[in-house]
Structures are given as structure tokens and as C-alpha cells.
Design brief:
There is one protein chain. The chain is α/β, with parallel strands linked by helices. It is 29% helix and 13% strand. It has eleven helices and 14 strands. Strand 5 and strand 6 (104-107) form a beta hairpin. It starts with a helix and ends in a 10-residue tail after the last helix.
Length: 407
């Protein structure tokens, strides 16, 4: 009897152990995989889909998944870089027809940022699915806001298929100040905000950050946006989620995505951020940098046909094999600024010379960081200046989380 009891106990322990391992290794499944939850919301409806090449379900694109399920895709709305993700950063894209499926494409990164009333007249429900990277200046969340505002203004229900945030395991950076709002940062959130697309959508609604067009017919008080978030499975904010599809041409791999919250600031300087190389945002440099043995020569490639310093030998930093910290690397930014010999020309100066027009300040979300770098403040001092804003944001953020937090 004793032996049977021991065998039974051992079996139970083995089962629990295997179950625990299975739970720990269960794959993270984005919202698009939860077809049973959202296909009924789309059935017999004319669907307007906002997406690009990153919206996959297994090895198939979401468009193919929907069409195979009998869903009528009326049109596809596309963000910066286009449906296939090959257009240059900042390159205006055009309307067209998807050659693979024959579906109509409406660009939301050309003449307009959001669907017009005419675009939505023959649409019953809106769908949103895209892989974000979790930084304020990555433009997909600005597109999300315009898309949600169009849904609200035209009284169209919206379904958001959530995807994990690869930089969702921390929050860092200065909180944007309103005068510096632009398409590379619209709302008062920090550089790294630690939320998925679905969670951020909840914040846009909950904080009343959406703006309906003045000429819309909706009752802005009595007609809240109708939206549903289809959550990811097996994901939380401690997850180091990885994927093998470049979300845009100049974020070719996870290393670049992890460095991006830091090195994107270099876009506001005269230094090369590595566009035109195989390691954009991981190769940083300038012809005038001294004492650096690493060099690279940027040049035209798909997704980066034009940028700074093409054809010139740049000396500087190779981050392609270095692990990014779970914070913005202020010491690195300070080092890069200090290494530049002509500091008065480090930041790209706008014609207006207004603080709000400096691209560096639009990326930073304020004019303070530039002045802190110029005055030689330490990383610790700069980081301390961010803390009140970060503390307040983290408290607000908690109200909208769909997944277990990292702290």
C-alpha cells in the first residue's frame, strides 16, 4: 500500500512539474490567432482593415486568413512604409490595389493620416492589426489614434487584434510636453511607455485623448467609441517577446528594436543613425568622429534610398553585437554628443530655429534634453528630471493594462 501511495504521489508531482514547464514554455499568441473570438464580429460585414506585412497568423498573412474564412475585406488601410513595409521612412505612399489579393489599398501616410468619411461609407466594421515596437516616436500609435478617431466620428465599431510589445518590459524617458506634439509623438507619454497597442487604445479612450472632427455628426458625449480588444495569450510585461519579421525597413532585427529607444534620438542630429546599412540604429557615426576604429559607409538600399552621409566613411559605434539595457542609454547619448567635435552643429537646426521645430526635440518630447546635453549634465541628473513624470504616468498606465505588469 505504501509503495502504491509513493508511486501515486510521484505521478502527481511529475504531472504538476510537466504542467508547470508547459505553462512556462507556452508560446505567446497574438490576438490575430484568436479567430474564434473575432471572426463572428466580422462575419457578413464589409471590413476595413488597417495593417501591414507584420500581421501574420502562423505563416499566413491576416488578409489571407480572413479571405480564407469568408470575410469580406472591403479595403486595406496602410501606415508609414506601406502594406509590404518597404517604403522609406517619411516617404509618402499612394492608394492602389494589392496585386496578391486584388483588395483596394488606401494609404494613411500620404495625403491623410486617417480614413475619410468617404473611405468608410462602404465599410461596416473596422479592424486593426499591426506589430508595434513600443516607443512614442514609432508612428504606428499615431496612426492608431487617427484610425480610432475616424471610427468614432463615423460611428463604426472597431476591433483591435492585440500584439505583444517587444519593449513592453520597462517604462523610461521624458514624458512628452504638449507643445512638442507631432506625428512622431502625439500624446503625453514617455519615450518607452510599456503598453501593447490594445492597452494604449484603452488609454486613448479612458483619458479622453481622442478628438472627433469638428464637422462630425456624432454626439461626442453620448456616443463613445465602440471598440473591442482581442488580447494575446500567454503574454505579460515580463515577456521578452521576439519575432522574425522586420516591423519597418530600418529595424531589421531584435537588436535594432531594443536599441531603438536610445539611438532613434540620433535622427535629430547630423550623425548617421545607420540608415543605408544592414544595421540601422545599431551603426552610429560621422566622418568627423576621432579615435574610433569602427567605420561604415551608408548608401541607398531598399527602405532607405536616401538619408544622411551616403557614400561617406563614418566612424563611430557598432552596437550590432551589444545587448541594449532595459532603459534608454543616456551615457551612450552623452558619449556620442561629447565625441562630436563641432557641438554647435550637432543638432539639425530647422529654418525657423524654433525649439518646437527641432526634430531632436520632437523625438525627445521637450526642449530640455537638448539643453541638458549641451550643459554637460550627467546621466543621473537627466534621469532624475524624468522621474516625476514617469511616476505619474506609471500610475495612470496601470488602469489600462490587460496583462500582468513587470513590477
Amino acid at each position: 500500500m505504501k509503495n502504491k501511495t509513493m508511486i501515486c504521489l510521484a505521478s502527481v508531482l511529475l504531472f504538476l512539474s510537466l504542467n508547470t514547464v508547459a505553462q512556462k514554455t507556452a508560446p505567446v499568441l497574438p490576438g490575430a490567432y484568436q479567430t474564434a473570438q473575432y471572426l463572428p464580429l466580422l462575419k457578413n460585414k464589409r471590413v476595413g482593415l488597417f495593417t501591414n506585412h507584420t500581421a501574420t497568423v502562423g505563416k499566413k498573412h491576416l488578409i489571407d486568413t480572413l479571405l480564407a474564412s469568408g470575410i469580406q475585406i472591403q479595403k486595406v488601410f496602410t501606415p508609414e512604409h506601406g502594406l509590404r513595409g518597404t517604403a522609406d521612412a517619411g516617404e509618402k505612399t499612394k492608394d492602389g490595389i494589392d496585386e496578391a489579393t486584388g483588395v483596394k489599398i488606401v494609404s494613411l501616410y500620404g495625403k491623410k493620416y486617417g480614413p475619410s468619411e468617404a473611405d468608410l461609407m462602404d465599410v461596416d466594421v473596422l479592424l486593426f492589426d499591426i506589430q508595434d515596437v513600443g516607443t512614442r516616436f514609432y508612428t504606428y500609435i499615431s496612426s492608431l489614434q487617427y484610425y480610432m478617431e475616424a471610427a468614432w466620428a463615423n460611428n463604426k465599431p472597431l476591433v483591435i487584434l492585440d500584439r505583444p510589445n517587444p519593449n513592453g518590459h520597462y517604462v523610461d524617458g521624458p514624458v512628452l510636453e504638449k507643445p512638442f506634439s507631432s506625428f512622431v509623438g502625439k500624446k503625453q507619454i514617455p519615450t518607452v511607455y510599456g503598453m501593447t497597442i490594445g492597452e494604449y487604445a484603452k488609454m486613448l479612450v479612458g483619458e479622453k485623448w481622442l478628438t472627433a472632427p469638428a464637422d462630425s455628426n456624432i454626439n461626442k458625449t453620448a456616443s463613445p467609441l465602440q471598440f473591442t480588444v482581442i488580447a494575446c495569450k500567454n503574454y505579460d510585461h515580463k515577456s521578452m517577446y521576439t519575432f522574425n519579421i522586420a516591423p519597418s525597413p530600418n529595424l531589421p532585427d531584435m537588436n535594432a528594436i531594443y536599441w531603438y529607444p536610445t539611438t532613434c534620438l540620433i535622427e535629430g542630429s547630423v550623425m548617421s543613425e545607420g540608415r543605408g546599412t544592414a544595421h540601422a540604429f545599431a551603426h552610429i557615426g560621422h566622418p568627423s568622429i576621432k579615435g574610433k576604429s569602427f567605420s561604415f559607409i551608408p548608401g541607398p538600399i531598399t527602405g532607405a534610398m536616401s538619408s544622411k552621409l551616403y557614400g561617406q566613411t563614418c566612424y563611430g559605434w557598432d552596437l550590432s553585437n551589444q545587448q541594449a539595457p532595459n532603459k534608454i542609454d543616456l551615457d551612450l547619448i552623452i558619449e556620442m554628443y561629447q565625441a562630436f567635435p563641432e557641438k554647435d552643429s550637432f543638432f539639425i537646426e530647422p529654418k525657423s530655429k524654433l525649439a518646437t521645430d527641432y526634430f531632436f526635440n520632437k523625438l525627445a518630447g521637450n526642449a530640455v534634453l537638448m539643453e541638458q546635453l549641451k550643459s554637460g549634465q550627467s546621466a543621473g541628473t537627466i534621469r532624475a528630471s524624468w522621474q516625476p513624470g514617469l511616476t505619474a504616468f506609471k500610475q495612470m498606465r496601470k488602469k489600462y493594462l490587460l496583462y500582468t505588469d513587470f513590477e
